[in-house]
């Protein structure tokens, strides 16, 4: 066992300097993500008892993200990517400060906090996606995302339980509010620490300066369709666990415990899949994640009680990282292929990809809000997740077509390069 651990450490050390720094940066920032994903939604629920405000907050975030992706493309012409990446991380702390400073959680205040968080995520994810693309290749991307997801899952064991216990240990609404303020201060300090780690890397800005295009290769348009299906769940799935458990189980302590149960098993599964799986295994991994998600969502809709909520969260803990572990390498490989075909910079596709996600997010959040206002809050919580999970199963067939088409184009490009090299060699021999 000890030798195996040493072997895994040596394998990590064999990666490039920038690979390791990006992992360390994301490791530090990973302590912030559970707070943002879970307890900001719980804070809104506690102080407004209105799930529609949680979804509106999420919509504000997802509106700010694509706008910031676009802005980031222009900023990269003048500002180093490390600075933009760091600003993105620190803005998440600023957004929480805005939220905690609101005396009443009206729609305007929630919207401003959401837009600010969207700015944070936009700067963070656009630069992080580009750096992940730049420092990895198709052979080590499974390992990169497996390791990264393993770290996030392990941290998801400790942080939700610790924060839930901390909030629950306080008596009265004033003390609980003070606990949220303390958590917000700690979050801001962690974002500063993550920014310091980021500056140890030697990250370069994208070379090509034009990022906006409207015509793309058919393979890329197919990936945009897959991104829209991925965005369906993102529309409110980030905050759905908080809304669901707060309604059914009632308190942040239960929320933290439910998020932590099963996370060790999920972390082990994800790490070993990322470490030892091949690019050809991505469809299997993706399909397993989608099926587990659909199973958990349908059980939640059928039972809609404590058991249903906990089973859904347990399956989600495994399903979400499985989906991400397969999706991101598929996305980056498609970018590698279409970049060579269309001779454009990578960031143009990272920017355009966000548009596909945004369409899906609007549809996902819109589904929840339509059911919320047309029927009832309980009906929306009970059935919206199941509807979206079943729709997402279409992603299996789309991803298969993408991989087959990508393999074909990659083979054609390799053959073309080989033919050109042979032709050049023949010319040289003739000249001699």
UniProtKB/TrEMBL annotation:
Presence of keyword Secreted: no
Cited Gene3D superfamilies: MFS general substrate transporter like domains
Bilayer-crossing regions: 21-44, 56-76, 83-101, 107-125, 145-167, 179-203, 223-248, 254-274, 286-304, 310-334, 355-374, 380-398
Signal peptide: none
Xref: InterPro entries: MFS, MFS_trans_sf
Domain of life (superkingdom): Bacteria
SUPFAM superfamilies referenced in this protein's UniProt entry, alphabetically: MFS general substrate transporter (SSF103473)
Keywords associated with the record: Membrane, Transmembrane, Transmembrane helix
Name by which UniProt lists this protein: MFS transporter
């Amino acid at each position: 066992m000890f030798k195996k651990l040493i072997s895994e450490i040596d394998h990590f050390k064999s990666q490039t300097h920038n690979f390791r720094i990006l992992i360390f940066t994301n490791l530090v920032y990973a302590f912030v993500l559970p707070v943002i994903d879970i307890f900001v939604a719980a804070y809104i629920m506690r102080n407004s008892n209105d799930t529609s405000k949680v979804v509106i907050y999420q919509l504000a975030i997802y509106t700010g993200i694509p706008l910031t992706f676009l802005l980031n493309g222009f900023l990269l012409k003048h500002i180093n990517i490390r600075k933009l990446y760091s600003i993105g991380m620190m803005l998440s702390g600023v957004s929480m400060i805005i939220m905690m400073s609101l005396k009443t959680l009206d729609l305007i205040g929630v919207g401003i906090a959401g837009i600010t968080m969207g700015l944070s995520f936009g700067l963070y994810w656009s630069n992080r996606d580009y750096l992940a693309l730049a420092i990895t290749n198709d052979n080590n991307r499974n390992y990169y995302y497996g390791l990264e997801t393993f770290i996030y899952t392990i941290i998801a064991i400790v942080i939700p339980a610790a924060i839930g216990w901390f909030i629950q240990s306080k008596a009265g609404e004033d003390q609980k509010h003070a606990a949220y303020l303390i958590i917000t201060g700690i979050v801001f300090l962690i974002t500063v620490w993550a920014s310091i780690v980021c500056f140890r890397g030697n990250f370069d800005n994208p070379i090509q300066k034009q990022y906006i295009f409207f015509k793309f290769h058919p393979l890329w348009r197919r990936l945009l369709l897959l991104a829209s299906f991925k965005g369906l769940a993102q529309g409110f799935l980030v905050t759905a666990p908080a809304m669901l458990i707060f309604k059914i189980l009632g308190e942040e302590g239960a929320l933290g415990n439910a998020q932590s149960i099963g996370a060790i098993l999920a972390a082990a599964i994800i790490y070993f899949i990322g470490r030892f799986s091949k690019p050809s295994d991505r469809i299997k991994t993706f399909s397993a994640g989608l099926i587990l998600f659909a199973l958990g969502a349908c059980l939640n809709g059928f039972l809609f009680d404590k058991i249903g909520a906990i089973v859904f969260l347990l399956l989600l803990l495994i399903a979400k990282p499985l989906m991400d572990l397969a999706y991101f390498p598929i996305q980056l490989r498609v970018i590698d292929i279409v970049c060579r075909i269309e001779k454009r910079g990578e960031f143009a596709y990272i920017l355009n990809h966000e548009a596909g996600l945004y369409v899906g997010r609007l549809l996902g959040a819109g589904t929840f809000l339509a059911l919320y206002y047309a029927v009832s809050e309980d009906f929306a919580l009970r059935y919206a997740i199941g509807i979206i999970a079943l729709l997402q199963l279409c992603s299996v067939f789309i991803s298969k077509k993408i991989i087959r088409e990508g393999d074909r184009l990659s083979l054609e490009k390799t053959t073309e390069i080989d033919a050109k090299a042979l032709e050049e060699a023949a010319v040289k021999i003739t000249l001699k």
